[in-house]
Every structure is written in structure tokens, then in C-alpha cells.
């Protein structure tokens, strides 16, 4: 139903058009009404809370230039839009160009403060607009430094340096005006989703769906993790056969997963004509580089020339689309390992894994509820303190500020671990 209402236009060979932000009063009113209802009906989020102390910390910055840098585990913009309403504020939002390719959604978000960025490319329009918005300082800006939502609620992916670098670049523009340099704050936010009801019936229903699809017939017994392991093993068997990977004797499930991931990554890198980053690099960083390249190919505009040349370009685009699907499957395999559950054996983490497996088997995400979102606010980082370093070494200063923001978000997320529900017997 939602997909029908938010009809997605065909992506092929359409020139990318930058979408600037606007705040249109009737659209803002409608979005304020819609956001909590969408969160409840679609995302299963029944409540968004922030402590009085954290709310007060934000209100102290109301008249300052601020960039909010939250983690991005799921469809968080609806939650944060509701949060902006709670604060009585309007935000600007940096959103992927794909958001604007959906008819109704693209029309609405462009009128409630969102503007587009072409990920994986040097989008000068988005960079210029961000610096302009920060220089003007009329409204706060929301950036998701992880770049993509990854559907792992207890994980913070490595931050991209854009949020800090663009903020520091905006200080260049402010310095050019002369006079005393005003503050420009980046504020770390942590979004902690946790379930507020007994989730055992939904866990059992999800496992039964998967067991029927995979014809397991109770092979995993009655234990939650035994059933999950049996499902993961069956999916892994099928993928090893599909990719021509022969399991070695006595290999554990994580070892088999790791070897299969390397085969798929090597295959995708070869198809893109890239050298695969070495295994000692973080897996998400390796995947991100390949995803950026597939995005670049998919978003290439058709060139002039013969029909034959255009046909070759279309073949390359179709090939990149297929490679992107294989990369998505690599990111799903990350969650199949029991390591994620072993770190924090909670209902929330268990559903993270279930969601990824259901996407692999059924081709779509499923949102469970009821859930509450607790928003934690960290100590603001005044980028003026890094500006002299930025003038001397822009790359190093941007990276240092990015790592500090990432560290603060991770710390905030760890502080809310007690909200998670332990796995039931």
C-alpha cells in the first residue's frame, strides 16, 4: 500500500537534478501530522523520548549554528522530524538523491527542508548549499555521517568526514565576512530503539515463516538460537552452491561466512574493474567503496554517439545493478554470524538479524513493534576549536573531528544499553 502511494519513478538514464530545500507552511503542517503516525503505523515506533537535561542542552543552542549528527540504524528521518516538532523547530536535511525519485515522498520532503546529494560523487551543488545554509544560520542542519541506514541498532558504522569537513569549510565563509568568528557546533545524537512488549510471539512467527520457506521442519529444535543457526546454515548452503564455494571440513559458520564474503567481494570488484581493498580494512569501508562505484555507474548520464554505444552503456548499467544486488547480500551476510548476538544477546539484536535474513529470503525488510526511541544528546563540539588545525591541514583536521564525533555517538549508544531487552528463555 505504501509503495503504491509513494510510486517510484524509473531510474534509468534520467539526468540528476539538484533539489534545494524549502519550508512550505502547509507541507510542514501536514508533515508534522504525518510523522508520528508514519512512525507508529509503518515503523512500529509508539513513542519518542528525550530527557529534560538533553532537551535543555539543545535549547541552549537554539540561536546558534548547529549540525546534528545522529546514528542511522533505520528509517530515522521520520523519527527526527517528529523530534524537531517536539522542540518547536524547523530543520534542514541532507538526503540521498534517491529519496527525491519517489513521486509523493520527493515532492513532500523537498518542501519540509530536505535537499539532495548525489552520493558517491563530488556533488558541488550539495556542498555549496550546505555551506550556504550553515553560513546563514537560519535553521539547524541534520546530517547522517554513516551515509546509509544499516539496520543494526547496536552498531555505529564508521563516519564519513563530510559533516565535519563541510562545517569547517563553512567557517572559511564566515571568516571571509570579517569580524569575530561565530561558533558552529556539531552535536552528536544517539537513537536507541528498544521494544516495549513481549516479542516472543513475533519472534516465533518470523522463524516459522523462514522455516516453512526453507523447508526446515523443526530442524533447529525449540531453542531461539538453535533455530536461527539452522536457518542461517540452510541459506549459507544455498549461497555456497550458487557462488561455487566448497566448504572445508570442520569449518565453523563464521569461517564459512567470511570465506563466502571474500569470494563475492572479489567477484564484484573484478566486475567493476577495481582492486579489492585488503581484508585488514573494515568490512563496511570495503563494501562502501564498491557501492560508491556502482552508484556512479548507475547514475551516469547517457552520452551521445551511436545506438551501439548507448547499448553498451546500458549493458554496463545493468551489470552494475546486478553487482549492487550482490553487494547488498554481502552486507546481509554480516548479520548471519552469531557474533552480533554474542556481543549483546538481546531481543533487539535478535530482530536485527531476523530482519536481515527475511530480506535475504523474502526480498523486503519487516519492521516490528511496538518500539520506543530514546534520543540522547552529547556534548556539542565547537568547530572553531579545530579551525586553526583545519587551515594548516584540512584533511587531518576533518578526520580528527569526524573520529571525535563518532566516538561521542558510540559512547551515547553504550550508555543506553540497559534499555535493551534480554533474550527470553
Question: What can you see in these coordinates?
Answer:
- The longest helix is centred in the C-terminal third of the chain and has 30 residues, at 307-336.
- Strands 1, 2, 3, 4, 5, 6, 7 and 8 form an eight-stranded mixed sheet that branches.
- The two termini are 36 Å apart.
- The chain is built from 16 helices and eight strands.
- Helix 10 (253-272) packs antiparallel against helix 12 (307-336).
- With 425 residues, the protein is an alpha/beta fold.
- It has two domains: 2-197 and 369-419, 3-Layer(aba) Sandwich (Glycerol-3-phosphate (1)-acyltransferase); 200-362, no CATH class.
Compute the separation of the termini in Å.
Answer: 36 Å
**CATH class of the largest domain, anyone?**
Alpha Beta
**What's the count of strands?**
8
Helix/sheet category = alpha/beta
Count of all domains: 2
Strand percentage, roughly?
5-15%
What percentage of residues falls in helices of 4 or more residues?
40-55%
SSE order, as H and E? HHEHEHEHEHEHEHHHHHHHEEHH
Rg measurement, Å: 23 Å
- Which ranges are low-confidence, i.e. pLDDT below 50, for 5 or more consecutive residues? 1-13
The CATH architecture of the largest domain can be named as 3-Layer(aba) Sandwich
The helix count comes to 16
Quick structural gist:
By secondary structure, the protein is α/β, with parallel strands linked by helices.
List the keywords.
425 residues; alpha/beta; Glycerol-3-phosphate (1)-acyltransferase; 2 domains; 8-stranded mixed β-sheet; 8 strands; globular
